[in-house]
Design goal:
276 residues, mainly alpha, globular
Amino acid sequence: MNRGASYWTLTYAALFAMAAYNLTPFFWMVTTSLKTDMEVTSFPPTLLPAELTTGAYARIWSQEGFPLYFFNSIKVSGATALLSGAIGILAAYGFSRFAFKGRTALMAAFLASQMLPGVLLVGPYFKMLSALALYDTHLGLILAQTTITLPFTIWMLKGYMDTIPVEIDQAAMIDGATRWQCLIHCVLPNILPGLVATMIFSFLLAWGDLLWALCLITDSAKQTMTLGITNLVGQFRVLWSDVMAATVIGCAIPAFFYLLLQRYLVQGSAGSAVKS
């Protein structure tokens, strides 16, 4: 009995240590954003704000360009998620329901593309987008980020579709349904949680991107939020309360979608497809 109690005590202690290790940076970020500029640079540093203030948030949101950066990120990330989901579901259906020559090799190529560091692809993407007159445009950035998220989307959606019996498609086609109708009315409703989860992943990846936005966008009016936050770091002075406030605002959307992602992952089940 004592051995069992010790086991659970050590387990909970390890979980608490891991949670503290992961949550401490976020706690420090939030508390720093609520401190005055003088308190942020004081030594020794304070754990909690001595004088609670939201001045950094007011300065950030009223700052010229920052609301634009925020909505640019919403636009680019949302379009990336929608485009990745739309193309991914068609490709995944083809891989899941059809056997064709080179199918395994093509899926392996998709998987291998995820292992390439993004910095190696910046040069080719720059040349292609410049040749297509899409450099320094949101469309060019959306297309570039979609190609990065699409292999993962295809792999995930194919896994969801593989759990749905092919007999459902065959029964629908016997009743006169087309392949497109099978996808829309039979397959899509049953993989909707998986589709939403993969789209949220694509959104989060595009939202937190800095490398592609930095290399493919130069116009300040088209910059995303990650670039806007880096612009807050000056050459001679850094207002850390403003930087932390901007980071908290930037983390609010991913935190919301992460909670939504957990919810839909739990709902991802093909059992309802078989029963219905």
